[in-house]
Design brief:
- This protein is of the alpha+beta class and 455 residues long.
- The protein is built from 13 helices and 26 strands.
- It has 4 domains: 2-163, Roll (DNA Polymerase III, Chain A, domain 2); 170-292, DNA Polymerase III, Chain A, domain 2, CATH 3.10.150; 299-374, Arc Repressor Mutant, subunit A (Orthogonal Bundle); 378-454, no CATH class.
- Helices cover 26% and strands 30% of the residues.
- A 10-stranded antiparallel sheet has the order 5-4-11-7-8-9-20-19-18-14, with helices on both faces. A 5-stranded mixed sheet has the order 2-3-12-6-10.
- A hairpin with a 5-residue loop joins strand 25 (408-414) and strand 26 (420-422).
- Helix 7 packs across helix 9 (337-348).
- The chain is globular, with a radius of gyration of 23 Å.
- The two termini are 41 Å apart.
Length: 455
Amino acid sequence: MQTYAYLRPSAVHQKTAGRALALETSGGAGPLGATANPRFFSGFLTSPAAAAAALLAVADVAAARYHQPQLRASLDPVVTAGGDRLRFESFSGCCGVHARLDVLADGLDGDDPGHGTTNVDVNNPLREGLSRIGAGEPLHLAVGPDALEVTTLDGPMVEKKVPLPERWVRGFAETQVLTAGFDLRAELPAAEAVRFLRTLPRTGGRGSTTGWVVPAGRTLRPTSRPVPGAVCLPGPERLAALQRVLRHALGLRVYGPPAAAAPGASAASAWEVVLPGMRLTLTLSPDASRGFSGEGGVLTALAAEGSEEDAELIATLLAWEPRIDPAELAAQSGLTVERVRAALTRLGTAGQIGYDPADAAHFHRVLPYDAGRAEAHNPRLRAARALAAAAGAVRLGDGLAEVTVDDHVQRVRTGADGQLGCTCLWWAKYRGGRGPCKHVLAVGLVRAGQPEAAR
């Protein structure tokens, strides 16, 4: 169970000089350590109506399940203060959509944001208050109570206990691995962005579809296959939350990996609506019925020799930077850039690292999870460690390894590009598209000398 303890509910208050948005915080971490109810910002939002609509979009995703929508799940959004911006994040209950609102320096008018991460209370009265905010009135934002409020209020007045799905924890890790491989694929001006997004369905009906779009001048056109430059649009109804901000949109940027070579393959993608002083990004998993938690992108980093010790070292050098420079961390730590990247991926399994495609950089946050929890709940990695530890289960050869599981043998080959492939059904089905299989992982563990007994 994840327990949120707030001093009072978040609310929109009417003031003589406009409205005040008070977002209550719970369980924060900052430079001085854990804080029950931290305060990260006090000031005005420069685009009140756009900010209110974008916050509602993040809350929409937190309350949604795009796969099996009859099951409800709602986790309070996470906010990270990075010194020059505020980032609000949420995951859908099905773990297939990640939402992030970046309120940049141009969107804030007040004290510089602090440093740290916390959850913020989102409730139905707050949503109603946000929906009534107009463009012509000032909106003061406070993220967390001030010192006087903390001392005068006697203990938490609002407590929420919500089951924390393991898939949601793992989703934070997988999302930053996937998006780190994205590039900007298309950029649309405001009018074309609004026109395109309004053509998308708002509900999935029976069986969600997966399509592709390709840049065509100043807009996007659908294509039946992943041609060069195309971007996958899996479950287009999952972009419905963007409808809230269309009247404030300044443009649309689309990010994705290189188009898949396999005709039937799908891919994740990120859709960023540019707003005044803000960016609202929805990242979609490769299929509406497929959450980020099963993608397997973190497995290689988790299995890498020394990655746990490297991650502990790198964690001491992080300070809620909005942009992390691996080369700078490598110079500070004495590690190679490759080992730093693996360490960042491992820290991502504890929710300590995110990735922003717009900046093409990782950023630091701290969530109340640990990397060991994500590893312990990954069946492929557990199975690979068991195979590597079993005497004679993995036999290495020159370019070919054999892995014995019960009464059958799988063969792991090293390709010309140095990548490993396997003869198992998992590899035949996904071709590495959902991370390595347990046999490939086991071979990597043994080659790296983990554990010693399997050498």
